[in-house]
Design a protein that fits this description.
This protein is mainly α. Helices cover about 60% and strands about 0% of the residues. It has 6 helices and no strands. Helix 1 crosses helix 2, helix 2 packs across helix 3 and helix 3 runs antiparallel to helix 4. The chain is globular, with a radius of gyration of 19 Å.
Length: about 120
Amino acid sequence: MAADATTLTEKMRAALRISSTSDKITAEIEDCIAACKADLANDGIKAINESDALIMRAVTLYCKAEFGYNDKAEKFRQSYDTLKMRLALSQEYNEEPAPPVSETDTDTEDAESEA
C-alpha cells in the first residue's frame, strides 16, 4: 500500500494500524464505514462528505470503537457519539446542500420582469 493512501478505506486501515490487505478485512472495514454513514444519516446528518475533516474523524472514531482499538472501545464510542451529536446540531451538516448554480444560469422570472 502506498503511504499516501487516499481512499477512505485505506485511511481507516492506517488509522486502525491494520497492514493486512485481505479481502475479508477490507470488507469488514468497508462495512464499518457504511454502518457509520448510515448511523450519521439516521441522526439527521445530511452532508456526509468523505473529504470533510469532521466526517472523516467521525468515521475514524466509529471504526476504532467497532474494532476495539487499543482496548479503548468505550472511549472511542463516547467520542464518536459526542461528535455525532455536534454534527447533528450544526446547520452546516443537517441541511441538504444547495445545488450548484452555474454562472450562465438565469432566473426566468427576473428576466421576464425586467423586460
